[in-house]
């Protein structure tokens, strides 16, 4: 059977698996806003609490709870109410079986047709997008999608102890990829993306007024231009892989 020529026009459920609070908002909040507006139920799975982030003297034991609250508020700005945190240490993620199992658990719980995550490949043109945690989560998520979540004999405790049946994800969208092949026009929902980003106070409050919006829209304008959208449009780009 031939693979689909492009991503599904609409899915019932989507799961976004990212390393840190704010990752989904910088890279994908416009896309998520478009999905929720058309009725897709979106869940966020954030692997760390972002406790190694920030730009001031906030005590480290307070940073994680602050960033969890920021992410929940940011999610609400784009229509997402189901936000889950795995609690792994920020900046110290490794490709482990435990992480694969924990992501597989969420996939089996949510049963999404689409998973959005970060690329496991380094983007040399924009090194900040290729934080080691981002690449680790991308690779771990892909391994959870295939083969772990769909294989009833992988992590058998998920079925035996938790009653979580195997689940096959149809497609994966990877952000910050050197192979991006699908652009989403987010011009009409950019205000919702910027509202989401503004909730990440611990990460953006050090920027001068207006600089965040200028930076983000400039970045998205270039993305739109690269992918052939008309002048003045804004886009987010992904590498879409069919995995069913």
UniProtKB/TrEMBL annotation:
Entries under InterPro entries matching the protein: GlcNAc_PI_deacetylase-related, LmbE-like_dom_sf
Top-level lineage group: Bacteria
Signal peptide: none
A Pfam family of this chain: PIG-L
Keywords tagged on the record: Zinc
Protein's UniProt keywords contain Mitochondrion: no
Keyword Zinc listed: yes
Listed SUPFAM superfamilies: LmbE-like
Designated name of the protein: GlcNAc-PI de-N-acetylase
Classification lineage: Bacteria, Bacillati, Actinomycetota, Actinomycetes, Geodermatophilales
